[in-house]
Amino acid sequence: MTKITWLRKNLFNSWYNSLFTILSLIFLFWVTKGILTWAITQAQWQVIQVNLHLFLVGRFPKSLYWRVWIILAIVTTLSLITGSVFTSFLIPKQLSKLITPWLSPLWLLSFPIIWWLIGGGLGLESVSTNLWNGLLLTLLIAAVSILLSFPIGVLLALGRTSNLPIVRWFSILYIEIIRGVPLIGILFLAQVMLPLFLPTDLRLDKLLRAIAGLVIFSAAYMAENVRGGLQSIPRGQIEAAKALGFNTPLVVILIILPQALRAVIPAIVGQFIGLFKDTSLLSLVGLVELTGISRSILAQPQFLGRYAEVYIFLGCIYWIFCYSMSFASRKLEKQLSNNPSS
Q1: pTM here?
Q2: Same domain, yes or no: 183 and 103
């Protein structure tokens, strides 16, 4: 079918469709022209150029930017390796099979190294968490919260389907109570009440309390996503595995979980994307992440009222990372569908 035939069939197949198509094109042209005119002639993009370092790393000491470059190199290298393994773009298939088992340990090992580079200690100059700002803080909190909430959510999902009444009812109560409370309430409770349950000589940093709040909240939703995958597994597979002599832990680890998680990859990644965007609420509890640092920038006298430029820039940043997670999810689904045994 040629393009002209497709247009005639789908957009100009009747007089009212043709009129609607023309009016829609005129409206889109008017909107696009207005946006481009504003972006080229009226917008003051200097607010982004002048404050780019604040958006990215906030008040992190400039003399220690070399640590940020090392972190960027680590994350970029691991991301390229991971992407190449799933797409077989740069790495041959034989080498991909050798690298795949090491991907998870490498990513897990990178987290303490990145935390050490940002915070210092053990031979490096310490940097207060008050100076961890901007996109650096947003990505760090999102990554740590995702890393911690995923296994907790899986355990809660297994607990909710457990035959042990105490475990099952504890999981149900936790999930239903947390899902009935808004995230901002959980964050404030973590900031105010969590220290009350700790020894008086143990003071948690507000950054750790914020991560705790996000993990507590996200784990409940993650549990329900995983439970949906658990319910999709036929009962016959479990009975067959037990008939072959597998005990319950092996049945769960080797048979149930791999299939359940594969079935709910879109839901799990959707939860990760939601968690990443929810980090914007942390500015309400005193953390200067990406949204919080934008408020500080908008308070600068020379850039008062430049809300559109700043929030368009923030929207682009959030969209890039959220789309990247969605894209990686689709690649992972495609890889698993091509290799069901992986």
Answers
A1: 0.84
A2: no
Domain of residue 246 covers 133-342
Q: Helix 290-298 crosses helix 307-338 at what angle (to 10 degrees)?
A: 160
Is residue 10 very low, low, confident or very high in pLDDT (cuts 50, 70, 90)? confident
Helix (H) or strand (E) holding 63: none
Buried-state track 4-18, b at ≥16 Cβ within 10 A, e below 16: eeeeeeeeeeeeeee
* Cross-strand bridge partners of residue 124: 121
The pLDDT tens digits for 89-137 are 556 666 667 777 777 888 888 888 998 999 888 788 888 888 888 899 9
- The token pair that represents 331 in the structure block: 């690649």
Q: How many domains, the chain?
A: 2
Which residue in the block uniquely carries the two structure tokens 């310490």? 126
Domain end (from 91, 108, 130): 130
Q: How does pLDDT run across 64-77, given as a tens digit for each residue?
A: 899 999 999 998 88
Q: Is 289 helix (H, G, I), strand (E, B) or coil?
A: strand
267 within domain boundaries: yes
Neighbouring-strand partners of residue 134 = 289
The answer to whether the CB of 180 falls within 8 A of the CB of 162 is no
Q: Beta-carbon neighbour count of residue 208 at 10 Å?
A: 14
Q: How many separate helices (H) and strands (E) can be counted in the chain?
A: 16, 0
The answer on 316 and 224 residing in a single domain is yes
Rounded to an integer, what distance in angstroms lies between the CA atom of residue 122 and that of residue 115? 12
